[in-house]
Amino acid sequence: MPEDNKGTVGRTTRAAVLGEDHVARAEAATTDFDAGFQRFITEGAWASVWSRPGLDKRERSLITVALLAALGHDEELAMHIKACANTGATAEDIKEALLHVAVYGGVPAANRAFKIAKRVLETGEGPGR
Questions:
Q1: Which of 121, 46, 37 is nearest to 77 (CA)?
Q2: Pairwise CA distance, residues 60 & 127, whole Å
Q3: Half-sphere CA count of 124, side-chain side, radius 13 A
Q4: What's the rounded Cα separation, in Å, for the pair 119 and 111?
Q5: Could you tell me if 73 and 38 lie in one domain?
Q6: Count of domains in the chain?
Q7: How many angstroms separate the CA atoms of 80 and 20, rounded?
Q8: Which parts of the chain have pLDDT scores under 70?
Q9: 96 within a domain of the structure (yes/no)
Q10: Are 100 and 114 in contact (CB under 8 A)?
Q11: How distant, in Å, are the alpha carbons of 24, 59, 80, 112 from that of 68?
């Protein structure tokens, strides 16, 4: 993919997964301090990885949920569980991914992730809200 196209492709994919409102808020909050970081996320994660062929958005969502749960990144986990509604991953899919976290990432990580997932799926809100 041409370098000059990565920003557009990444933004489009990011909005498709996380929602236009989320992306618009992130863009509005961007300052000179974090502009390079936002560009890195958009081009690196969303254009170079999420936009690749081979896995669909549902599969990428489930991988992301499992990784974030195993690593204990609660806010990002909540955001990506909420985003599953945009990618076709169901509550049943999320449950199965979190069972894999219990086996391969540890029961405490999965226990915390299940609590977050229940809260997000029931209320649409993330951790501590």
A1: 121
A2: 22
A3: 2
A4: 13
A5: no
A6: 2
A7: 14
A8: 1-3, 126-129
A9: yes
A10: no
A11: 23, 14, 9, 11
Are both 64 and 23 inside the same structural domain?
A: no
Label residue 3 exposed, middle or buried (CB < 10 Å: 0-12, 13-18, 19+). Answer: exposed
Are 90 and 111 part of one and the same domain? yes
Q: What is the pTM of this model?
A: 0.91
Asked, for residue 129, whether it belongs to a domain, the answer is no
The pLDDT value recorded for residue 124 is 79
- Taking the CA of residue 90 as centre, how many other CA atoms within 13 Å lie in the half-sphere pointing to its CB? 2
Does residue 77 sit within a domain? yes
Specify the pLDDT at position 125.
73
Query: Do the beta carbons of residue 68 and residue 100 sit within 8 Å?
Result: no
Residues 41 and 69 in one domain: no
Cα(32)–Cα(52) distance, integer angstroms: 29
CB 118 within 8 A of CB 124: no
